[in-house]
Amino acid sequence: MPAITIKPERLLADLHRLRAFGAYKTGVHRPTYSPDDMAARGWLVARMQEAGLSARMDGIGNIIGQNTAARRRLLVGSHSDTQNHAGWLDGAMGVIYGLEIARAFLEAGTPGGAGVDAAVFADEEAHFASFLGSRSAIGMLDEAEIDSARNLTTGETLRQALAGAGLAGLERRTIDPSRYLGYLEAHIEQGDDLEARGFNLGIVTSIVGIHQYRLRFSGVSNHAGTTRMAIRRDAGAALVSFAYAVNERFRQLAAERTVWTVGNIRLAPGQVSIIPNHAEMLLQVRDDDPAVLGRMRAALEHLVAETRQGGPCAVELEILAESEPHQMSRHFQDALGSAASRMAPGQWQRMPSGAGHDAQIIARVMPAAMLFIPSIGGISHHVDEDSSEADIVLGCQVLADACRLLLEETRQDN
Description:
It comes from Sinorhizobium medicae. The protein has helices at residues 8-19, 35-51, 92-107, 132-137, 143-148, 158-164, 193-197, 235-253, 290-310, 330-343, 358-362, 389-409; strands at 23-24, 27-28, 54-57, 63-66, 72-79, 114-121, 183-188, 201-207, 209-218, 259-268, 278-287, 314-323, 326-327, 348-353, 368-373.
């Protein structure tokens, strides 16, 4: 198979054009199903069609641009939605890689019947539900979940959002795994490991599981100036004590790369002169070992039981989501390694991903792998998120060559 040649100037131009949808300071604000998000998706459909792909959006907002001439195919993509007031490359870079590589195969004449389909998934950032689009694409999203899902920031129901985006009533399409050899996704690292070690590329070995919990504490409101400390049932104080206990217990149980975060705390009624009668916190735990995640959950449940027994406030534990870790295809990793060694010898490493990605969902139905490029300063989910153009171009070239290698291997079988 001939070399697959991407066009760096076109790649960067498309990436910057996508950046304009929802531009905010130096970053992007493009939450799922917002007008800017839907405008970006419409532009992506048009861009795929201009390239010669058969593309349309489905009822959850996913887009698949198909090379209809290909007999042997890979799926390459990511997500186009963003966190609120966040960075311009998270997800978007992988989407444009998919478009550019699919285009490059078409321009090479779909050599030997080999081609790439480009994928754009919806709501990877979980404005409504974790991995909404990729789970829908593999048949893991049912209508009952769509009925119950709400925007975590605005409270808007998912049904309302789909109707407002013009997607209500459209069919949700599932991916046929037999159509593809597998799935490849590229992403900025979202950390500083590559930069700190002086590497330009990272080949992902595994993607962490993410467990998310909500804890609610119930107490009694009273006057903050006249109620003795000894008789208080202060839900806010109970939450703070519990969060400290979680931190101490988790430190004893954590593996090398285990991380946990209390990302949101709310107190009611939220007045400085009133003792809180309600408090809640969101807790997230990440690791790539199911056994570690299991023991962290067991410790959390034990702390809840201890708190209930010791009082003075009631506590409830709600499990919001538990995505499991996934190992990336070793064969696909090796193809990425071969491409990286040819184009960037000595400039790459294998590494786990501490962030969740659509690849861990698609990996449930087909082989999958990921390629990272460095994030400048390790910054992500922030308007200062950035990567060098040289690394962006190199990553796309390596991913395109890995696609060539994987598709070339199967030529004799087809």
